[in-house]
Write a structure and sequence with these properties.
The protein has about 120 residues and is of the alpha/beta class. The chain has four helices and five strands; from the N terminus they run E-E-E-H-E-H-H-E-H.
């Protein structure tokens, strides 16, 4: 696999992030605060994963258009950022609000909806 696939899904309570090497190997999964506290946080995270893995990251920002572009959100900064040699990022509409499981005992809970999004949007 020559690329890492990554999905970033902000919501009012948190931002879920998943990175996969191919269709079945999850390499990174996190629940972060609802929005980054610095305008370069998202691009720095994408660069860090790319540098760590030694592969380009192809990311999808999965958000409602209003949430991704509103002036109070730092995610709108990412929409004008098309990456470069280390990563690319595209906005994709938030998949229908799938029923999400609460955090499980293993840590950060299920990310099945974001895995599906990676298979249908990012991997194409």
């Amino acid at each position: 696999m020559s690329e890492i696939w990554m999905a970033i899904a902000p919501s009012a309570r948190e931002t879920r992030v998943i990175a996969m090497a191919g269709a079945t190997e999850t390499i990174f999964k996190a629940r972060l605060s609802s929005r980054p506290s610095h305008p370069r946080a998202l691009s720095t995270l994408l660069e860090a994963i790319a540098l760590w893995q030694g592969q380009k990251v192809r990311a999808a920002l999965c958000a409602d258009e209003r949430a991704a572009t509103c002036g109070s959100s730092r995610f709108h900064e990412a929409l004008g950022d098309f990456g470069g040699p280390l990563y690319s990022i595209d906005w994709v509409p938030n998949p229908e609000h799938a029923r999400r499981r609460h955090r499980d005992i293993e840590g950060v809970g299920g990310f099945a909806d974001l895995r599906r999004l990676l298979m249908t949007e990012v991997a194409r």
